[in-house]
Design brief:
249 residues, alpha+beta, 20% helix, disordered C terminus
Length: 249
């Protein structure tokens, strides 16, 4: 999905966790069916592009069909597990998510992103960016594409216990429209600090969300947590193109 563009500019920089939220209602269409009609940024503004690829996995003590039904029932688990981030439904499959509060060089912003959770298809579950009705991001554009793949684990603890492994991949790009007043700041410094911050945010959010989804699923189904629950599998190739090789973190 292409970026949703905007013209006002605020740089994205450091993090805390609470933020406000706006309300809106959107027609329930997949992201690919929604046209981007916002004007392009002013030529006077320079865009700083941050890109990264992440991967991880989590085990669920149930068969694939049970895990798939749970993921499709996102109106329950997504709202619960995303906390303390604020979540607002904007369609049958879409949510507006406030990531947190970020600030640097005296500029502040509370990033909000629309996410579309597609129905499970051939054991693949997708989450992609979508527009938030009536909201124009103040100086940043987020392009988010996550893919969750469900695999049956033959090495379950016992023949009577099913196990599903969920492998996830995330491609994330953030475009920041820099105002002219920041033209004196070295671009390498802005990019380095942005890379470090966003990599840290994704790692923290990923770890917390993975743990909460596992907790919520097993508690709601009265199932024991898998032995791998204490471990968190996360790989990052922030700032590299896909295929550049990810390192475990």
């Amino acid at each position: 999905m292409p970026f949703a563009r905007n013209t006002s500019a605020l740089p994205l920089t450091s993090a805390t966790e609470d933020a406000g939220m706006e309300h809106g209602v959107a027609e329930d269409l997949p992201p690919s069916a929604i046209a981007d009609e916002l004007p392009p940024p002013s030529p006077a503004e320079e865009a700083l592009l941050l890109e990264g690829h992440y991967a991880g996995k989590m085990d669920m003590s149930a068969d694939i069909d049970t895990v798939g039904r749970y993921l499709n029932s996102h109106r329950g688990w997504f709202t619960r597990c995303a906390q303390p981030m604020q979540v607002e439904p904007i369609s049958d499959h879409g949510y507006a998510l406030v990531v947190g509060h970020f600030s640097v060089l005296s500029y502040e912003v509370e990033p909000k992103v629309g996410l579309y959770l597609s129905p499970l298809d051939h054991q693949v579950y997708r989450i992609d960016t979508m527009p938030v009705p009536g909201y124009v991001p103040p100086g940043y554009d987020v392009d988010f594409h996550a893919v969750l793949r469900l695999h049956e684990c033959p090495e379950a603890a016992s023949p009577a216990t099913a196990m599903t492994q969920v492998d996830w991949d995330l491609s994330l790009a953030v475009k920041i429209h820099m105002p002219r007043m920041l033209s004196s700041v070295p671009r390498s410094l802005l990019k380095t600090s942005g890379d470090r911050l966003l990599n840290q945010v994704v790692r923290q959010v990923s770890k917390r969300l993975t743990r909460k989804v596992q907790d919520d699923f097993h508690h709601s189904h009265n199932l024991p947590l898998p032995e791998s629950y204490r471990g968190h599998y996360f790989w990052s190739s922030w700032g590299r193109r896909s295929g550049g090789g990810a390192e475990p973190r």
